Amino acid sequence: MYTSRKKVLWFAIITRIVILKLQVIFNVLIPDHHADAFKRPLDSAEKVSLCDQIINFLFNGLTRWDGEYFLHIARYGYTYENTLAFYPLYPTMIRIIAVILTKVFPLFNMQSTMIVAAILINFVCFVKSAIIFYDLTESVFQNTVTAYKAAILYCINPASIFFSALYSESMFAYLTFYIMLGSMKCMPNIYFPLALSTLARSNGIVNIGFPIYFGLKNLCNSERIETHGRKHNVLSILWHILKLMKLNNYFTILSVMIISLSPFVLLQIYNYMKFCTSTFDKSLLPVHILQYAVENNLILAGKTDSIWCNASVPLAYSYVQKTYWNIGFLRYYQFKQIPNFIRDELYLLGFFDSKAKSENIVKDIQL
Question: What angle do CA 240, 246, 251 make, to 5 degrees?
Fold first, then answer.
């Protein structure tokens, strides 16, 4: 008889296999949408074997959109300015696993092994995230049934495909759930997954709030236990406030913050040194990478004329998101987007049989 935790493990594995199979089927049946989006430049001189063609046929549907960026970074690094919106942990792991796979399976070229490596990483990270999510829910609610149902729903959530596509969602979800659970249990080495989460996604820096909150909460709870039953006066209250401000307790929290944020700071320094100084030698890049930059008007590393380079705090992420995708705080919520909001709401409420019909309604409104 399987325990609830074991059932979650196997259900997560089965759902990942089902998602991969469905991806193959729908990728064959449904034609690709030809969007004006980034597509990683491929080396025409690279040999493509029958094995590579099979990998491309089976899993090419998972490489769209952000996956194109991650695969490009994994192989060539941060060559274009727009690639700085994607953090390095996931593509670095793809690169490491791919190098190992090329030794084990020499018939595959680097592009194929990177695709396989990314799928393996997402598979493992998702399964582990489902288990950690079960443990986290059980720890919060103290209820096995609630934890089991929550984990099952997590495995079949509507955005499940993004956890199998070549995105960093699975890795970030695993790290975030681990940080939450570790913060609750006051694990001493919580700074390590915290540091990794800041290199996985930009919002990983928010995770630092979990150990700070639980650290302060446990500190306050311990002081309440010590003072329980004692007669309080002004002097005793002041004394306990001073005890709460013990330097060693706050030094521990501060050290966690510094260690966790140091990789993020080093990444910003790396981005600045590579893109805002003229020390980077463009001749080190392959010809097809340079040609793609010229054809698509992309900014290469080593140019010093980017606006963010001259900012008082030179952070590339927000500038790249705003410049290349018009993404920013509340930037999407504009008056011209009202027809799209109406379309999405009517579609979700079941007023249309397909999204195509709802899009036609939007066009009529806009006209």
Answer: 155
Q: How many residues appear in the chain?
A: 367
pLDDT for 274-305, tens place per residue? 888 876 666 678 888 888 888 888 888 876 66
Region of 66 please: left (phi>0), alpha (psi -120 to 50) or beta. Answer: alpha
DSSP string, 164-226: TSSSSHHHHHHHHHHHHHHHHTT-TTTHHHHHHHHHH-GGGGGGGHHHHHHHHHHHHHHHHHH
Residue 185 exposure: Cα atoms within 13 Å on the Cβ side = 14
Compute how many other C-beta atoms are within 10 angstroms of the C-beta atom of residue 235: 8
More confident residue, 167 or 37: 167
186-203 as b/e: b if 16+ CB within 10 A? eeeebbbbbbbbbbbbee
Q: Taking the CA atoms of 26, 32, 35 and 37 in sequence, report the sign of the dihedral they define.
A: positive
Nearest to 48 by CA among 105, 104, 107, 118: 107
Q: Which among 126-130, 251-255, 351-355 has the top mean pLDDT?
A: 126-130
Q: Which residue has the tokens 């597509």?
A: 39
